[in-house]
Amino acid sequence: MQDMRMTPRQILCAAALALLAAAPVHAQEVDANMAIPFYNTAHAVQGLYGQWFAPQAKAAQASAQALSQALRAHCTAPAAPAGSAAATLQTARQAYVQSSRQWSSLSAVALGPLVERRSARLVDFRPMRPALLKKAIQSAPADLAAMERIGAPAKGYPALENLLWTQPVEPQTPACAYATLVAEEIVAEMGILSNGFAKFAAQDWSEDGDATTEAMAEFINQWVGGLERLRWADMEKPLRSAGSKPPAWEHLASGSTVEIWRAHWQGLRTLAVSVDRKVPQPGVDIVPIESYLRGRGLNPLADRWLKAVNEADAGMRALTEPSAKAVDAATKPLSRLKRLMEGEVAPALEVNIGFSDADGD
Amino acid sequence: MPTGIEQALNRRRWLQGMGLLAAMPLATSHAAMPSGPARSLAAAWMQGEQMRVGIVQASAQVDRPLQVLQALDVPTRAHGMAALRDGSVVFASRRPGDWLVRLKPGQAAEDAQWQWIEPDRFFNGHVIESADGRHLYTTETDLEDAQGLIGVRDAITLEKIAEWRTGGMDPHQLLLDADGTLMVANGGIPTQSETGRRKLQLDHMDSSIARLLPAEGGALAGLWKLDDSRLSLRHLAWGPQVAHAPARRWLGIALQAEHRDTEARAAAPVLALFDGHRLHAVPLPEGREPLAGYGGDIGCDGQLFAVSCPRVNTVTWWQVPDSGQASGQASGRWLRGDAMPGVYCVANASVSLDAKGRPLPAEPALWMGGARQAQLRQRGQVLRTVPVPGMALDNHWIALERGS
Hints:
The structure holds 2 protein chains of 2 kinds.
Chain A: H1 8-21, H2 41-76, H3 84-106, H4 113-116, H5 119-123, H6 130-139, H7 144-147, H8 156-166, H9 174-202, H10 210-240, H11 257-272, H12 289-295, H13 299-318, H14 324-348
Chain B: H1 4-23, E1 39-47, E2 50-58, E3 67-73, E4 78-83, E5 89-93, E6 99-103, E7 113-116, E8 121-129, E9 135-142, E10 147-154, E11 160-169, E12 171-176, E13 182-186, E14 208-213, E15 219-224, E16 231-242, E17 245-257, H2 262-266, E18 271-274, E19 279-281, E20 297-300, E21 304-309, E22 314-319, E23 333-339, E24 345-346, E25 366-369, E26 373-378, E27 381-387, E28 392-399
Antiparallel strand pairs in B: 1-2, 1-28, 2-3, 4-5, 5-6, 6-7, 8-9, 9-10, 10-11, 12-13, 13-14, 14-15, 16-17, 17-18, 18-19, 20-21, 21-22, 22-23, 24-25, 25-26, 26-27
């Protein structure tokens, strides 16, 4: 990873651009080629943690709490009559999709506490193992401390999807009690993430600090990693590896596959381009990759980046169902986007991509 | 050991090469380039936006581009490959990889045999055949603990039947030794599933060369490390006999430097040597331009190791130590560097096995692939040049049959 601090020439360039842009820049709409302020790594990292991860983690915590409450309401509902349980189940299912979507958005780019805690393994381990889930229910854990003895393949969102759709839990049953604990565990993890990201957001990200430079390089790398998880691991790999069987995409049981993919993509997109076409205010707003490039005078590359992201976005919007044809069409622009990042954007930002397709091994 | 026919062919080709050398200036012009026998190689490449694996052929006709005899689109980048003795070629996906694929001669792409790895493992890019031909060995990572393992696979079904721990992280290339033991380069770079694109905790790098015993369920028989923990041991080739231990051959290891400091990384060695007991890095000669700390591939011509250094567009040639005594040459030495734009792949005979399950002996001239051309090189001499239009050749390729 290279030093990303400003050179004197960059400072002059930034000053000139800042004059051109003129105040107030906040909430100002930007044309693709409009000059905008120079953003240093501190602005970018501050925006990332303060305006993206901290609020996203808070929202993930809130949606997990709503899921937990909905499950508790379902599981404590009277066992009869038929119909009333179905309503509470429906509410819990909606809460699951909302929470799962929020988690997908938060974890689209895995940074900070998400990596340190290996949260994806804790709340979203795949593949879920039905046999282990059955055993876990039979073991009837009483509380979260007891849940620590149960392995990740029987917990988290995949286990809840199974308990809400594949074999829907009935109120007042051990399976329902277990599902409630699984949801509570997710709430606890989201709470820890929320606190963790709040601390990162409150940190003083110094322009000259090694930690800031490292965080920016980490962000670019993990953005590519998140794109590859969506394009390859989530969408294309199940299709290519299916053979004669139907592709085993995730979230098919809940019918939320496309919704979850889109949430993941929106997480990536928000950090990639100025989605509202406003000029980010340095040190206040999210500084997406596009703005970061423009701030450095790299407008032609930023234009191509914006175009590639928009093409990928169009592909994801056109995706209405998880089918071979639709997935094939949607993943092609994602693949082109990855190549542009690895081949041109990351080098322009002087960031080494750890396992880049543009390099040897 | 080579058969009598192979020895005769090798000797004849060597003599042919020497005869050509005598007749040619050092830098051969295209016009003066002789034709030679066609040569098939298993390769991986990118064409436009499509990644492919397959069989290519360097034509016998002068200036005729590299021909694609057989091609298969692959979903992610490929890396290493192994030619099995049944005539098929197995390609491994680049780390973090998901697939292996077998291609048989003349087979239609849709008939290729795919094998997908289980969700909590990934392939690290290399595969070889076992000595008895019943199994394949693949380098893999366990995502649970980031530790390296060898996947032991049925050679027919490609399905995993056992796993052996490699004693380190990030196992990369592996080769069989003539005694049937398995040499593995543990690259030592930590990874985890959450950070598939990021090299983590490089301060904790732990690269090593491991010797495993297939006959004893993959038991670890030895582990050797360099003093500099930021050097990742990655690619392997068997070299000439060890002068002080004639029963053994030098193992050459191409290195990838991971130093945080840019200058230290650029000036790092690109080759390490292992004589069966001692592992050491070969220092760069004083006064030479640094090699950017990256050896992309390695081969051997029987006497010298050739290490491709694509970041400085150079093929480097290295001599092994004359003896085990402490002297100026005790660690081996740089012999020469030849310019070749974008040179990556060097045909490595060590990957392929003879009928008795031992690594094939080296060939005196090596096919190398670069940015725009492939060349058959015998040390400083370019014996043939083949244009490679529109194809970006990947790290590795292997020659398929001899004397064709």
